[in-house]
Amino acid sequence: MRVVVTGSRGKVGRATAQAFADAGHDVVGVDLVRPVFDAGVVVPGRYVQADLTDAGSAFAVVAGADAVVHTAAIPQPTGNPPHVVLETNLMSTFNLVEAAVRFGVKRFVNVSSESIVGNFFPERPFLPDYLPMDEEHPLYPQDPYALSKAFGEQLMDAAVRRSDLRTISIRPSTVHNEDNYESNLGKQVRDPSNLSANFWSYIDVYDLADALVLAAQSDLPGHEVFYIASPDNAGGHDFAAILHQYYGDQVPLRPIDRVDASGISTAKAQRLLGWTPKRSWRDYLDEDGHALDR
């Protein structure tokens, strides 16, 4: 396939472009930054600099594509004015979907977020209705980032109603690679009292990239939504024990399939996409949360 990967210079985009190239696809990388021509720097395939909030630019990069994998976004509501976060994320997605519909693209893979539930950056904090989180959990977005992801998934729903485009939304847990496992997850591995809104969940960027390739290659109809997270929690802690220790009975715990379970269920992705995660924090950190010698 000819696959357009947006945000191809970002952490997720780089790994995704490489995964598609490794799978034998023709990759067109798209991002805001200027092309770099030094050997070893350019992402696989062709690269196009484009601002996807501009409709003409979005149409130009989508023309001729078999699939669009949309990883580009402002990744959180902090650091930019709220209207910039919402406008950038929403309009880039809208423009790409509109182009995909008009050009008859077969598959659109939309990178959403675990933050879509709304409990990551709330002005009025709340806890999930239950854990592990799954695709049936209600959404309660408050902040502009969570709203942009919720609206993005609604754009997928609308697209499949009016066209033959097949769409998949992937909701990754917090993404890590070899550069940031220690700084991001090390403290949770050492001490689970370092709480996070995703309840010690995480995903390796290369496992996420594998899921995005499977999503683009899938022939599932309509619009499907999948959480993507590692099956274990950061630190390999007894999930039921630490959940009760730090949250008491505030969050109902549903059945889990392993003692060190994640706070997010990926049963649906494993069942319908055939996705199998291959990497763990243990590939990067020791039991004290420090980086392994590599």
TrEMBL record:
InterPro entries: Epimerase_deHydtase, Lipid_A_modif_metabolic_enz, NAD(P)-bd_dom_sf. This is NAD(P)-dependent oxidoreductase. Residues 3-218 form the NAD-dependent epimerase/dehydratase domain. It comes from Amnibacterium setariae. It holds the Pfam family Epimerase.
